[in-house]
Design brief:
Pnp Oxidase, Chain A; seven-stranded antiparallel beta sheet; 3 helices; globular
Length: 142
Amino acid sequence: MTKTLKDIATDMAGIDIAILSTHTDLGQIANRPMSNNGDVSYDGTSYYFALESTRAVKDIQRDPKVALGFSSEAGLLSEGIYVAVEGDAELIRDKAAFKQHWNSDLDKWFEKGADTPGLTLIRVKANRLTYWKGTEEGEIRL
């Protein structure tokens, strides 16, 4: 049975951390953990906050092609899911957008909240999603 994006979103609902992969200026792949800031209703678009000075932002400015990796642990009553996303990143510097995706858990990382100098919102729009859940695997093109 092929899963839909809605099915995958249901399986991903409890996952907060993703691995964001970008391309460095030397052509290498750089990976880092990113919190999705409580935006766990996955619809093919993800949002992450970073500072303008970070490597992630610099990498995206140079090459917006990125990947995301998500995984959840298997429990007694459920199988874990692994999701790989390929997409395009956009850097957003609009405070109205910051406030739309902000939650108080971010205050520990950004001392002035949505007004932190150099704050950038990374928007990743998926174009391909591959998943593995137990013996099932599949791909969804968006």
